[in-house]
Design a protein that fits this description.
Two copies of one chain form a homodimer.
Chain A (H helix, E strand, L loop, with lengths): L1 E5 L5 H14 L13 E5 L2 H9 L5 E8 L3 E2 L1 H10 L3 E9 L3 E4 L1 H4 L3 H7 L2 E4 L1 H6 L1 H7 L5 E3 L3 H10 L4 E5 L1 H7 L2 E4 L9 E8 L10 E8 L6 H11 L4 E8 L7 E8 L5 H13 L2 E9 L2
Parallel strand pairs in A: 1-2, 1-3, 7-8, 7-9
Antiparallel strand pairs in A: 3-4, 3-11, 5-11, 6-9, 6-10, 12-14, 12-15, 13-14
Helix pairs in contact in A: 10-11
């Protein structure tokens, strides 16, 4: 089986796809995948991971969907809602620890001298957001350049001859031969990114401890969201997530991504969602899968 | 009065602050501001606009809060909820039309030759997101470099000697002496950015056609959001917006930004929000202001 993910080596996505690959081999997702060879397909963006699975160049894909600090990964939510018909068949949680990485030459005179020598900081926009207070405090006037992944930022620093720094994982440091100048620089603890495993046709197995993800839009009339949530409340369903995104047709129109405890095969979920479809003018099932 | 905004000249924020300044002079926000001189204070990020107002280096600030395609401006929502105590006293809607701008030398051989000559595209991440399908279709392999504003991207292209392109407004093109190679390249019509005017101590006047913005968090128990919305439903209040953001303490905990039709001085809004405070464990009034 071919599994697409956001490369290069050293990304948190690589960590997620390896956790997912291990759980496939453990049989967590049923016998059909156990023992098969899982070839990884490197992509250069989250959008490419999703379109690679949708287009059949990979069988499955692992892609970031939300972070506990920075919030939703917009491109993932928007593509799942509008552009592709894929099933979420699993989820993986990866704790995110960001570090300030420099070349050995920048670090060798000590931490203080290394910090003062830095002329530019490179990272992915999400990682920059996760370290915003740190950067404001210690590097208020140093330019920040965005890269398409934290690992690519580390590669760019390693390949340069400049006193640049990358915000990335210790995994990226090890792979690029960079030195950790300052460890664990993210603004908040509890920094976790949630990844989902996508398939063209399969949901995850019903293990008895599952989640079901849906997306819907209500009519733009007073109380419509309240009534939609009332359906879920009536069946005593527990929401573990609700996330709004613009409907993109008019300011003030939203679609809602909701995760519910339970599997779509469960009778109460099936009945509640049958009713919810009637109460919404757009509804899409995204899939059921074992809770991480 | 000093009004902070995201510069340099040519940004959509500049357009917003000029619309706001004109509405101040028209007396829309009451007599206290009419006729006063309104000096503009240029900032280099949305975060700086907000902290400039909170710190007293400006009296008011105009800052982007959401876009109809890309969704919320996370830094604005997060700072209003957690970092500062400011009042929203007005809102401004600015239609966003993005264009592909190049130097005259790149464009002079014609549009097709100009497009083929482009080696790099520069813009603000939000603008890149708004033109994502356009870029995928026409420039799948051309690198995109992020800049801190669309106007800065235009300045960088104008100052270079390269065949670069910027995604920015026609206003930026005029100010930097750039040529519009391809006009109106955003993926969707109805691309509107909503800006809010912030003050340390004043809400907007009650004109009879107002909005009130609040942010709250419910307890992490089943049905808590449903019950909170039930309070607003009980008082027949009309929600014009609901937006979730991570509470940042744990994946799956959210705070909700809600806009309601009406002014906080209105009796039904006051009564409903008094009850809502009792039903939520975090509640913050962000302000009431005339609807744009």
């Amino acid at each position: 089986m071919r599994i697409a993910y956001l490369g290069p080596q050293g990304t948190f996505s690589e960590e997620a796809v390896e956790i997912y690959r291990a759980s496939l081999d453990s049989g967590r997702y049923g016998a059909f995948t156990t023992g098969s060879a899982h070839e990884l397909v490197q992509c250069t963006s989250n959008a490419e991971v999703i379109s690679t699975v949708a287009g059949g160049q990979a069988d499955e894909g692992v892609v970031a969907i939300e972070n506990s600090i920075e919030g939703p990964v917009n491109v993932t939510l928007d593509m799942l809602a509008w552009d592709v018909d894929l099933h979420i068949k699993g989820e993986v949680l990866v704790p995110i620890i960001q570090n300030l990485l420099v070349r050995y030459e920048t670090a060798e005179a000590g931490t203080g001298a290394g910090v003062r020598a830095i002329t530019k900081i490179l990272s992915h926009p999400q990682a920059v957001g996760q370290c915003a207070a740190f950067l404001n405090r210690h590097f208020p006037s140093i330019p920040v350049q965005y890269a398409s992944s934290t690992a690519l930022a580390a590669h760019m620093v390693a390949d340069s001859r400049e006193s640049w720094a990358a915000i990335a994982s210790t995994r990226a440091a090890a792979q690029c031969g960079l030195t950790v100048l300052l460890p664990s620089i993210q603004d908040k603890d509890n920094n976790v990114t949630r990844f989902v495993a996508l398939s063209r046709d399969k949901d995850g197995p019903n293990t008895g401890k599952c989640k079901t993800s849906i997306v819907f839009a209500t009519e733009h009339v007073p109380g419509s969201l309240y009534r939609a949530l009332g359906v879920l409340n009536l069946w005593d369903l527990n929401l573990t997530k609700i996330e709004s995104r613009p409907a993109k047709n008019q300011l003030g129109n939203y679609i809602f991504f909701v995760d519910i405890e339970g599997h779509r095969e469960d009778e109460n979920i099936r009945d509640a969602l049958t009713m919810l479809k009637k109460k919404t003018f757009y509804f899409k099932m995204l899939g059921s899968y074992p809770t991480a």
